[in-house]
Amino acid sequence: MTDFGYKEVDADEKTRLVGRVFDSVARRYDVMNDLMSLGVHRVWKRRFVAGCRLREGERLLDLAGGTGDIARLAAGRGARVSVGDINRAMLSVGRERMDAEGKVDGLDWLQVNAERLPFADASFDHVTITFGLRNVTFRDRALAEMHRVLRPGGRVHIMEFSKVGLPVLGKVYDAWSFQVLPRIGAAIAGDKESYQYLAESIRRFPDQETLAGMLESAGFEEVRWDNLSGGICAIHRGVKV
């Protein structure tokens, strides 16, 4: 059994339910991100990619790459990016958007399961996953796979919602997440239930220290994290030695 928001479900059932959530929200995903974060997610993502310290020609695997926000920023810094996502609808939206903009060439778009990556050992210089790890059924397997496909000296970069440090901010954040976001989801995306799940999944996700411990258990060293916006979001990084 594993968590699907506040519910406990069979592991296979979680995979199916998460797939249904993202099938539903794919077309409105970017609009909803702007509304949910009041546009702040764009600032977070720029900081995240800047902190990856990418070099020209390095290979990057962007898991849960969805609509391509991270891929666009990373490719702009000279990285060769493979966008991986388990959800075909999200990949389709991302590829269509990139083709329409005509700004980024040479991206690989791949439907992959983060728990069973179809790549050889030591294939990438960097692995990123942004707001996607909490939707993975077996996170320990996904982290182990990220470690496996990185070359020695390669780095993992994870950005995910985390634990708010200030009690006052936490109360405001809870009210926004559980009272406002599902209503926005119903009005804009026509799907209240999916955004209720997304809010619940954030609360069920491990806090900063716990996730750091999971990275270390997967074999990563030099693990550290930085809080953004008072801990609403956190960036974790680690090195494969």
From TrEMBL:
Gene Ontology MF annotations: 2-methoxy-6-polyprenyl-1,4-benzoquinol methyltransferase activity; demethylmenaquinone methyltransferase activity
Taxonomic superkingdom: Bacteria
InterPro entries: SAM-dependent_MTases_sf (IPR029063), UbiE/COQ5_MeTrFase (IPR004033), UbiE/COQ5_MeTrFase_CS (IPR023576)
Keywords on record: Menaquinone biosynthesis, Methyltransferase, S-adenosyl-L-methionine, Transferase, Ubiquinone biosynthesis
Substrates-to-products reaction catalysed: a 2-methoxy-6-(all-trans-polyprenyl)benzene-1,4-diol + S-adenosyl-L-methionine = a 5-methoxy-2-methyl-3-(all-trans-polyprenyl)benzene-1,4-diol + S-adenosyl-L-homocysteine + H(+); a 2-demethylmenaquinol + S-adenosyl-L-methionine = a menaquinol + S-adenosyl-L-homocysteine + H(+)
Signal sequence extent: none
Protein's UniProt keywords contain Cytoplasm: no
One family name in Pfam for this protein: Ubie_methyltran
SUPFAM superfamilies per UniProt: S-adenosyl-L-methionine-dependent methyltransferases
Positions that bind S-adenosyl-L-methionine: 67, 85, 113-114
GO biological process: aerobic respiration; menaquinone biosynthetic process; methylation
Pathway(s) per entry: Cofactor biosynthesis; ubiquinone biosynthesis; Quinol/quinone metabolism; menaquinone biosynthesis; menaquinol from 1,4-dihydroxy-2-naphthoate: step 2/2
CDD domains, alphabetized: AdoMet_MTases (cd02440)
Enzyme Commission number: 2.1.1.163, 2.1.1.201
Family statement: Belongs to the class I-like SAM-binding methyltransferase superfamily. MenG/UbiE family.
PANTHER family registered for this protein in UniProt: 2-METHOXY-6-POLYPRENYL-1,4-BENZOQUINOL METHYLASE, MITOCHONDRIAL (PTHR43591:SF24), METHYLTRANSFERASE (PTHR43591)
Record HAMAP family: MenG_UbiE_methyltr (MF_01813)
Role this protein plays: Methyltransferase required for the conversion of demethylmenaquinol (DMKH2) to menaquinol (MKH2) and the conversion of 2-polyprenyl-6-methoxy-1,4-benzoquinol (DDMQH2) to 2-polyprenyl-3-methyl-6-methoxy-1,4-benzoquinol (DMQH2).
Name of this protein: Ubiquinone/menaquinone biosynthesis C-methyltransferase UbiE
Origin species: Wenzhouxiangella limi
Name of the encoding gene: ubiE
